[in-house]
Amino acid sequence: MVIGVTRTETFGNRFLEPGSRSAELFQRARGSLPGGNTRTTVFSPPHPYYLRAGEGCWLTDVEGQTRLDFLNNYTSLLHGHCHPAVVTAAQAQIARGSAFAGPSGAEVELAELIVSRVPAIERIRFTNSGTEAVMMAVKAARAFSGRPKIAKFEGCYHGTYDAAEVSVGPDPAAAGPSDEPIGVPESAGLAPETLESTVVLPLNNRSAVERLVEREADHLAAVLVDPVPARAGLPEPEPGFLPFLRDLTSRHGILLIADEVISFRLGYGGASQRFGFQPDLVTLAKIIGGGFPVGAVGGGADVMSVFDPSAGKPRVPHGGTFNANPVTMAAGLATMRLWTEAEIVRLERLGDDLRTRANWTLEEAGLPFKLAGQGSLFHLVPVEAGRDYRSSLPDAATTAQRRELHLRLLGSGVIISQTGLGCLSTAMDAPEVNEFVEALRASALAMRRS
Ligand code: PMP
Questions:
Q1: How far is the CA of 261 from the centre of ligand 1 (A)?
Q2: Distance (Å) from CA 283 to ligand 1 centroid
């Protein structure tokens, strides 16, 4: 049964009050989880709000406060929480069994659906996360090309696989010139050769990208690009930049991997279709699993054949106890069937409206932010943010202000991420956009007064 949610009258952030249920749970969590946490992204000081239930576009925390959810588990829920068709599909599958040592019909159907939508995907394989999808794409590219290195863009996140954990959020002071960035490890403990085998490129800078890729061309297996990278504040690709990258990589026999874990939301056939370029491999996750853990790597039949076990041991073996788990596949299928052209267009219009009105509000309040983004995705970025990582990076004072705005929005009943990422779900319409703009206005004015 879906847990009912009713909106409370009063707001504020009860989870921050001494003795709150969230404070208590966090105290307990510290005894068994490092820093009380098992997902870095959702930690926020002094402690996060613990969640109890969601329905549609509403999310209720353990204090009983219900807010509008503009984060949707970091953009992974297309239809909000507990869409009846998704709940029915998942429950029906759980009742038949949740995990088998063998493939299921739903796996074939979801694969067919994605192949039919995305021009670049002829074959696809499912994983359990976007991180795994990127890991398998990089391995496939190395296996196919016989080359060791990959290139990625500064300020872009692709999960927690070593090769991608370079220059994700570097301090520019330690990252070299902007047109020739130095690789900076995002994490301690990366494999020792990681920095030498990952080349870092500046976003949307054609001449620098051309120079750096050509210098390393003989060693590069792949260039990994997120068409509209969320971690960098959703900067729009410079017109023609992605097709340019396609041409450049093709000329040098380098594979192009489009990481669409988030940007797949941007069109019926994903971001590559929207921006008119044909990557060799595409990585997916989040939305395609209907709210369950998922990932996928897809691409041309030639490259994807490195995984083919039908003629003996594949060049890239890819086991995984929960790959294409039947519950995930059933929920993903129900979810993607409801992600129609009409709904995508509707949310794009709603998103345009939200961005425009939010930007008026921010300007009126004199806060140093604007709302960037496309389609159903948005991101609060510094006013001066351009199309590269470094200009999108807030300084310490602006970062503190953005966190305060996030907390004030929460206190006004609206959820976005603490770094300013948000998205729409199909459970939303004009009233929810109005509520967002109202909450933003109230929060921004309160900040200006304080
Ligand atoms: N790539 C991108 C572009 C992402 O945004 C993310 C996650 N936010 C990942 C990869 C990793 O996906 P997951 O969290 O499912 O491992």
A1: 6
A2: 9
CB atoms closer than 10 angstroms to residue 24: 13
Confidence of residue 430 (pLDDT cuts 50, 70, 90): very high
Give this prediction's pTM. 0.97
Q: Which of 157, 260, 266 to mutate to test the pocket of ligand 1 (most atoms within 8 A of CB)?
A: 157
Q: How far is CA 134 from the centre of its chain?
A: 13
Q: How confident is the model at residue 4 (pLDDT cuts 50, 70, 90)?
A: very low
- DSSP assignments along 340-388, one per residue: -HHHHHHHHHHHHHHHHHHHHHHHHHT-SEEEE--TTEEEEEETT--SS
59 vs 29, 69, 172, 233, CA distance in Å? 22, 6, 37, 24
State the pLDDT confidence band at 449, using cuts at 50, 70 and 90.
confident
* Cβ atoms of residues 151 and 208 within 8 Å: no
Q: Is the CB of 120 under 6 A from ligand 1?
A: no
Distances (CA, A) of 428 to 21, 81, 160: 29, 11, 32
- Cβ contact 175:197 at 8 Å: no
Atom of ligand 1 nearest to the CA of 293: 15
Collapsing DSSP to helix, strand or coil, 33 comes out as coil
Residue pair 7/412 in contact (Cβ under 8 Å)? The answer is no
Task: Report how far ligand 1's centroid is from the alpha carbon of 286 (Å).
Answer: 8
- Other Cβ atoms within 10 Å of 319 Cβ, number: 5
Which of the listed residues 128, 131, 228 should we mutate to test ligand 1's pocket, taking the one with most ligand atoms within 8 A of CB?
131
213-240 per-position pLDDT tens digit: 999 999 999 999 999 999 999 999 999 9
